[in-house]
Amino acid sequence: MKSIDSIPTSKISRASKLISTGVKVGGNYTKHYAKSLFTDASKEELDQRNAAVVYDGLKELKGSALKVAQMLSMEQQMLPKAYVEQFSLAQFSVPSLSYPLVKKVFLTNFSKLPTQLFDEFEPEASFAATIGQVHRARKGSKNLAVKVQYPGVSESVLSDLKLVKPFAARLFNINLKDAKPYFDEVADKLLEETNYTLELEQSIFMSSSCSHIENLKFPTYYKAYSSDRILTMDWMEGVHLSELHKLNLNKEQRSALAQSLWDFYMFQIHQLKKVHADPHPGNFLVTTDGNLVPLDFGCIKEIPTEFYEPYFELIHPEVIENEALFSSYLYKLELLRADDSSDTRHFITAIFKDLLTVFTRPFGSKTFNFSDQQFWSDINRLSHQLSEDKTLRKMNGNRGSKHFIYMNRTFFGLYHLMNELQSTVVINNVNW
After folding, report:
1. What is the chain's mean pLDDT, rounded?
2. How is residue 7 annotated by DSSP?
3. Pick from 65, 71, 62, 69: which is nearest to 299 by CA?
4. Is 259 in contact with 179 (CB distance < 8 Å)?
5. Across residues 102-130, what is the average pLDDT?
C-alpha cells in the first residue's frame, strides 16, 4: 500500500474531508434510489459502496476518526456486514506515513533522526494502524519495534469526536443533549491512547502483573527510546491471532492458547480491576511455539467498584431469576431509571433478562466451548431481534453506566477472539 506524505491536521481540513465523504455517500443514495425505480437495487450493494467511501475518507484522516471506525468494526451484531468488513481493515490495512514525516516526528521528540538514535532503522513501516505505525530497528544486539504516532492525532481527538457525534448518535439512537458522559468516556480513552508515556507505564505494569500466566510472553519496553509520541519495545516474532492458520498448531496448542487468553482477561478484570480494553486480533501475536503475546496497552479500562460489583452479580442465574434483586442491580447500573414508566421498566427488564441469560452462559459451567454453534446462534438471534424491535428503536439510547462502553467492548471482543480459537476453556482457572 502506498505511503502518504501528509495528514489533514487542522479542524477545517479534517471537517472538509468528512463533509466531502458525506457528499459521496449522499450521491450513492441518490443513485441507489434512481436505480431502484427500474431494477431490483440491492441494499447490500449500497452498504458496500458507502462503507468503502466512509473507510477511504477515514483512513486518510487516521487518528481518532479511524479509531472510531475500528471500534465500530467490533459491533458485529449492530452494523451491516459491509461496514464491519470495511471498518475491520482499520486493524491491519492502513496506509503508512512516508519516511520524511517519520523523521520529523523523531526530530520533534528527540532532536535526532531515527538513524542517530538507533544503529539501524527501517524507513518503511512494518505495520500501520489507526494512531501509529511500527518500524523495525536495532540497537546493539536488540531487535526493536518502534511505534511512531501520526502527527496531529492527539490535537484532533476532541474535534474529531464532535464531527462523528451525529453519525454515532443515529447509529446507537442516542440523544446528544444527554450524551456527554458517554462521549467524555470515549474522549478520555482516546486521549490516553495518544499518550505514549502513559502507555509505556501501563505496558510495564500489565506485563509484570500478568507474567505468571502460562503461555504468555511480553516484550521489554525501553524508556530511553520512548517519548509522548514514540514507544520502543522488543521486536516479537509471530503472526496476528487472525492468521493463526499459518502456524498449523495442534489441538493441544490451540487449547493452551485459548486458556491463556481467557486467564489473561479474567486475571486483569477480577484481580487488577483494570483491563486491556482493545481486544482485536491485531493486538495479539502468536509465536511459532504457541505462546500468546499481548500488544498495545494504550487502552486500559479501570473498573470502579461501584460498577464491578453489580455488573458481575448479574452472571449468576439465581440473581437473574430473582425479580427484586435483578431490578435493584439494573438500577445500580443505570439501565433502569427512577422516571421510567411501569411499561418501560417491564420492557427493559425483560430485554436484559433475555440478553444476560445468553451472554453470561460461559460463566454457568466449569468449562465452555466458545465455538458452540447454539451459543452464537442465540447471540445472532437476539441481535437481530433487538435491531428490529420498533419499541427499542424509539427509546432514548442514553441508558446505562458509561462504564458499559469499554467493558462490553472488552467482552464482545474477547468472545469473538475465543471463537476464532475454536477451543474449550476452564472458566474459573484463575482465582477471582
Report:
1. 81
2. -
3. 71
4. no
5. 94
In a domain, 315, yes or no: yes
Give the contacts of 237 (CB within 8 A, at least 6 positions apart).
Answer: 285, 287, 288
Given a cut of 90, whether residue 304 has pLDDT beyond it is yes
- Of 30, 56, 91, the position where a domain reaches its end is 91
Looking at the domain assignment, is residue 47 inside a domain?
yes
3-state secondary structure of 231: strand
Question: Of 65, 91, 117, which one is at a domain's C-terminal end?
Answer: 91
Question: Rounded to whole angstroms, how far apart are CA atoms 401 and 182?
Answer: 8
DSSP character string of 159-197: HHHHHHHHHHHHHHT--GGG-HHHHHHHHHHHHHHT-HH
Element (H, E) at 144: strand 142-149
425 contact partners, CB below 8 Å, separation of at least 6: 255, 258, 259, 262, 367, 368, 370, 418
The DSSP H or E segment spanning 103 is: helix 99-110
Cα–Cα distance, 150 to 229 (Å, whole number): 8
Q: CB-side exposure of 75: number of CA atoms within 13 Å?
A: 17
- What is the count of structural domains for the chain? 2
Across the range 74-102, mean pLDDT stands at: 60
Q: Is the pLDDT of residue 28 over 80?
A: no
Range of the domain at 37: 11-91
Please check whether residue 226 lies inside any domain of the structure: no
**159: exposed, middle or buried (Cβ count in 10 Å: 0-12, 13-18, 19+):** middle
Mean pLDDT for the stretch of residues 306-316: 95
Chain centroid to CA 285: 16
Q: Is residue 250 within 8 Å of 209, Cβ to Cβ? A: no
CA distance 29 to 169: 20
The DSSP secondary-structure symbol of 243 reads G
pLDDT category of residue 397 using cuts at 50, 70 and 90:
low
